[in-house]
């Protein structure tokens, strides 16, 4: 009888020891959420954004993690707004993440970040551009990337200071059209473009929103032709970018300049879908791309080398770089925080102060009272010979602007 009791006691002690070891192992992992559209129509850019975060985390883990704890990324698929909300809730309540990183899509970031704010979980945005996201002044929301306002301002700046001089014409003589998909993203950029164009005295002859899931742009293109448009400003995702170029070619619509906004114009897959001969010459306002003067973006060459080594290819767009730089900023802040509590992490992030020109994006980091990085800005690129290269501003350029006179 005594032997049985002793045996039961020994087994109980071993079981307790095992539970203790499991708890210790669990404490050695820092779980962070990664909320992106991994499926659906935005999956390519969602995955490209994820790659930047993944590279930054692997780099940090290789250096010992944070406070000796290995970072584990828990993925959430924000395929649409409803799913973004559901996945944010799952990451917080089921997976127990200490923060959420994401998200690329403005509409999905808008709703998912509200879930995180109510749960007092830091939400780190590194890709969505709608100004409305940070205008709510949430306590636990921070964004490293530039905004729709920045995109709009840079596009008008390029018309005035690059396109018009390149064509040897007065900017006010150009007939400009603003077209955009009608979600939160496109609508916000289009509204700011209209405002900035008026300030510069530009002649905007058409402003045409269209459904984000549009399948035929022939009537829109006909209106642009009838309006004798010189410069088209398009804010779009990938599918509508491809559709615009294909149907513009079919209609033989060739404006003197096309300036895109965002990932639809940045993706290598877009160039492959429409053809190099079709897209060459198109301009784009977006996050920094990897073909940029390294002196203006310290660390860009190391990022590209790490990307190639892991994925066996060139970066598909600048979204991976933007998420890589943003993730490094936030991970450094978490490491500097007094603890993993939301308030300690928030305090550390709010104290970040990276001077202008000191990141691989070419800008610095300093968060305003609304959580927006006040030192972020867009770059101007152009498709040339099948590559998207930086052409504006001059200090970041690796090639001269090419325009059809």
Automatic annotation (TrEMBL):
The keyword Signal applies. Coiled coil: none annotated. Keywords: Amino-acid transport, Receptor, Signal, Transport. InterPro entries: BCAA_transport (IPR051010), Leu-bd (IPR028081), Peripla_BP_I (IPR028082). GO terms for biological process: amino acid transport. Residues 30-386 form the Leucine-binding protein domain. Residues 1-28 form the signal peptide. Pfam families: Peripla_BP_6. Belongs to the leucine-binding protein family. PANTHER family: ABC TRANSPORTER SUBSTRATE-BINDING PROTEIN (PTHR30483:SF37), LEUCINE-SPECIFIC-BINDING PROTEIN (PTHR30483). This is Receptor family ligand-binding protein. It comes from Pseudoroseomonas cervicalis ATCC 49957.
